[in-house]
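Data deposition worksheet. Section B asks for the primary sequence of the deposited chain exactly as it was used as input, without tags or linkers unless they were present during the calculation. Section C holds the resulting structure in token form. Section D is free text for depositor observations; keep each observation to a single sentence. Incomplete worksheets are returned to the depositor.
Section A, Depositor: J.P.
Section B:
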Amino acid sequence: MSNPDFPTTLTLNLLDRIAAGDNLARETLISHYMKRLRRLASVMLRGRAAVRRWEDTDDVLQNTLVRLNRALQVMETWKTWGKTWGHDHYCSAR
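Section C:
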């Protein structure tokens, strides 16, 4: 029997690795969700002729991936900053 939590567990593991600076984990996460994101973009554009005239599925997917990559970079920076000056620093000063 398959574990229904495997995708969530895998995603959380990859996010932890990304936060630690693992670029391979970033590539794995993006490739893991690429097909799902493309399908979602296609569904969102379906029936919206006014939008589809300016954007196609691949444009929307590319913009989504750029935003995802930026968010993952911010997450890495925040985690690094948090370990240096955030929660860990606050707790050790108490």
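Section D:
Residues 38 and 89 are 41 Å apart (CA to CA).
The helical segments are 6-19, 23-45, 49-52, 57-85, 87-93.
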